[in-house]
Amino acid sequence: MQALNLALNGKVVDHIIPSFKKIDCFLKEWNIGVKDQRNLFLTIANVLKESKSSGKYSFKFLTKYLATFAGEDSYIISEAKEEAVRSVIEFVKAPDMFQCDLLDIPAVAQLEKDSKYALVYQLLKIFLTQKLDAYLEFQAANSTLMKSYGLVHEDCITKMRLISLVDLGSNESGQIPYALIKDTLRINDDEVELWVVKAITAKLMDCKMDQMNQVVIVSRCSERIFGLHQWLSLRSKLATWRGNVASLISTIKANKVVEEGLPAGQGTTIR
């Protein structure tokens, strides 16, 4: 902590940032208590923010700090209220962050019923579970609140459009009609493919555009949250893949038996 404060006051934090990658190893070696870990994570998050390093890196330690309040009583959790709000705003602002577990963290969940910060929690929920129309409705009713936190409406729209597009790609059919993208993202016909390309560039989805049939064929898309539903979906997919591999192995074995039973030169080629 002294080294961090010294680096921060001396404006030489770049020299100490590389050590943050080893912080988990340090914690095992030091065997310090939860309160000390909490203080350390928050200080590191502040150092990274002050140094204007990667927003994701600062956000990572901020969420580590908030996670240390799990299992504490409501009075102690309330100490993290301001940092919980900060984490929400940082996530919403970040143009390159589309997934987080903030909704599962008790220190953030407390905001839902807080008279002062309930709207901040509602905004987070929109960015993690809803589409563009919900955001536009929220912004129209709370534009002053948005500005007070330094949130730029145009940037939020861009992020929500990408998120909404990815959400459309998570349906079971794996296909998204151009018309649905146009309506959901509230864009013109000639902008549909542009936004699909933006989503691909951001590595939010892998897909192909079928211009003839006016559909986007999705092979993979990112999840905004990864909870029980996502785990069950993953288990189902893995079970399907396992069944397909088992079926393929059985087919190969069956063909091999047939091939070995035929006279020389009459084997079946397996392709």
TrEMBL record:
Domain PCI, first and last residues per copy: 57-223
GO BP terms, alphabetized: cytoplasmic translational initiation
Pfam families linked: eIF3m_C_helix, PCI
GO annotations of cellular component type: eukaryotic translation initiation factor 3 complex
InterPro entries attached to this UniProt entry: COPS7/eIF3m (IPR045237), eIF3m_C_helix (IPR040750), PCI_dom (IPR000717)
Similarity comment text for this entry: Belongs to the CSN7/EIF3M family. CSN7 subfamily.
Protein name stated in the entry: PCI domain-containing protein
Species of origin: Gossypium mustelinum (Cotton)
